[in-house]
Design brief:
The protein has about 240 residues and is of the alpha+beta class. The protein folds into two domains: about 5-145, no CATH class; about 150-235. It has seven helices and seven strands. It has helices at about 10-15, 30-45, 125-155, 160-170, 180-185, 200-210, 215-235, and strands at about 5-10, 50-55, 60-70, 75-85, 95-100, 105-110, 115. Strands 1, 2, 3, 4, 5, 6 and 7 form a seven-stranded antiparallel β-sheet that branches. α2 (about 30-45) packs across α3 (about 125-155), α3 (about 125-155) crosses α6 (about 200-210) and α6 (about 200-210) runs antiparallel to α7 (about 215-235). The relative contact order is 0.15.
């Protein structure tokens, strides 16, 4: 599924997208150049792309992507990379460390974004910036794995789970129409892996339901939920 103003596209289709004319200080990067440079940088780190999905705003300006990687396989899943960029000056190139969960084919993202130090400026060395970003991605993915273990170890009373659900929808991180589905996925799970009443099961209830959202809103929603759960864990520890 994609947003009403975006379409799912392949890498080959990205080649046909026209890039805006740059200026002396602003250098828009063709979407396909970004994807293929990132692919090459990943390969130099012995990381290959298993699957890729892209959503493009219909005017061609904004690109969202999810790359499932042959890297960092754990009991829960394998590494994933979220990507977003724009050629209309609305955002810089940003990536987010994530995990593709095996058992229910959903995505978990670590809350913080990894943004390139330079925006689309004339002095941008794309390969160099992406190399630094991928190193940071590997560090963030390692932290994500540790955070997942902490979520699995954090048992929730029903009232705590309901409070977290309230926070997600009250803060507008996901559409309130999804509240019932999230509640059902947590309190009446269809998969035995998520029967334990813990923070990991609740997190997966959110990300499972988020699969039905368009990619352009799904990625920031999953990222925001991940950030909230990270913050709530820190509060619990204090």
């Amino acid at each position: 599924m994609s947003h009403v103003d975006t379409d799912l596209v392949s890498r080959d289709q990205l080649r046909a997208i026209e890039t805006p004319q740059g200026t002396d200080t602003w250098k828009p990067i063709p979407h396909v150049e970004l994807v293929e440079t990132l692919d090459r940088v990943l390969r130099t780190c012995q990381i290959t792309i298993r699957e890729e999905q892209f959503a493009l705003r219909r005017d061609g300006s904004v690109l969202f992507g999810v790359l499932e990687l042959a890297y960092g396989e754990t009991q829960e899943g394998t590494a994933a990379l979220g990507l977003r960029t724009a050629n209309d000056k609305s955002m810089s190139i940003q990536i987010c460390a994530g995990l593709a969960v095996f058992v229910c084919d959903n995505l978990v993202f670590r809350g913080d974004l990894i943004a390139l130090r330079r925006k689309h400026t004339s002095g941008l060395n794309l390969r160099e910036e992406l190399s630094t970003a991928v190193l940071r991605f590997q560090d963030h993915f390692g932290r994500l794995v540790g955070e997942i273990e902490a979520l699995k170890a954090r048992d929730l009373r029903d009232i705590e789970a309901k409070a977290l659900m309230h926070d997600v929808f009250a803060e507008g991180l996901m559409p309130v129409r999804l509240l019932q589905a999230v509640s059902e996925n947590y309190f009446e799970p269809k998969l035995s892996d998520f029967e334990p009443r813990n923070a990991w099961s609740l997190h997966n209830a959110f990300t499972t339901v988020a699969k039905g959202m368009p990619m352009s809103t799904r990625l920031p929603a999953i990222q925001a939920v991940g950030k909230l759960f990270g913050m709530s864990s820190e509060t619990e520890e204090r």
